[in-house]
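Intended use. Records like the one below are meant for learning the mapping from a protein sequence to its folded structure. Do not use them to infer anything beyond what is encoded.
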Amino acid sequence: MRIGLLGGSFNPPHQAHRAISLFALKRLQLDRVWWLVTPGNPLKNNGELHALAERAEAARKVAADPRIEISCLESVIGTRYTADTIDYLRRRASRLRFVWIMGADNLAQFHRWQKWQHIAAQVPMAVVDRPPRSFRALNAPAARALARYRIPEADASRLADRTAPAWVYLTGLKLSLSSTGLRNPDGSWKSF
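Structure written out for the chain above:
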């Protein structure tokens, strides 16, 4: 099976998460996408983070597709770091072919993630364009460091079969929705 991994706070989950997942399922020829609802992002202020169970339940409602599965794995294995999560999954599910999915906004700051080079060496990555962040993302330190491993977008359907490091930049999905934009100043969620 070919599994896309979409990690995040999902605070709150929203239709762009779903759209990115459906887009990745199609473009990357994936069997499933797992939403990895993190207990907390080490690079963000988690003071206004809703309870993990609340975020996971909201994610299930938004996903509304049997090919999108919701997981709180990082809470179970006791980590907040993607590198640890990927190492765990590769040990426990070695027969599955994983692809890490992230938005261009995450590529722009990927060099700040713990063990980002290790992540890139362990699992192929798909970066979904999020205008107007495209230029900044493609010129970020991690994108420049990994430039020689970027594959043409036309080969995206074979990304899951490639040996890491390998990554593709996917264009065509134009969504500006963000969790930050769906939170009130006090951290509560706007109706969605």
